[in-house]
Specification:
about 40% helix; single chain; globular; 6 strands; about 25% strand; about 160 residues; Mannitol-specific EII, Chain A; alpha/beta
Length: about 160
């Protein structure tokens, strides 16, 4: 299990979403990952992300969503980030629009690492200073730097036990 700083690459950051709806956010992330060679099946990624959303919104409140899913034939865990200055209706738990999106896609056989990384992302986005900084950030490099600085405040996670 790696830190977010080991998983979030600049080419997986969307500085400003074109998306205006939840499904468009998922499609835009999938398109980006396909274009960067991170996933081979864009439609499958959209499908598994939408399937996860049917269990309950990944919009956790405070303007944040963490769409996540496990996917077959994925070689490694992927973390992405995107921002919408306008805000997107995402059926978040607090009923408010979402501005900041962290994407987590994990290979099927890594449920422990998936949960640990999801918890780590959830922990860092609780910081209102990080959230406001990400909303004001100018460019992907600044966004990545802010996320990495917040991530560094927490101990290195331990690997999940393999079953």
């Amino acid at each position: 299990m790696a830190k977010i700083s080991d998983l979030l690459h600049e080419d997986c950051i969307i500085e400003e979403f074109a998306a205006t709806s939840k499904v468009d956010v998922l499609r835009e992330f999938a398109s980006l990952l396909k274009s960067r060679g991170r996933v081979s099946d864009e439609a499958e990624l959209v499908r598994v992300l939408q399937e996860r959303e049917t269990l309950g919104s990944t919009g956790i409140g405070d303007g944040v969503a963490i769409p996540h899913a496990r996917m077959r034939a994925l070689p490694t865990m992927i973390v992405g980030f995107g921002r919408s200055s306008r805000g997107i209706e995402y059926q978040a738990l607090d009923g408010r629009p979402v501005f900041l999106f962290f994407l987590l896609v994990t290979p099927d056989g890594m449920p422990g690492d998936h949960l640990k990384t999801l918890a780590r992302i959830s922990r860092i986005v609780k910081n209102p200073v990080l959230r406001s900084g990400l909303l004001r950030a100018e460019g992907k490099q600044e966004m990545q730097r802010l996320i990495f600085e917040e991530d560094a405040k927490y101990p290195q996670p331990q690997p999940a036990a393999r079953r």
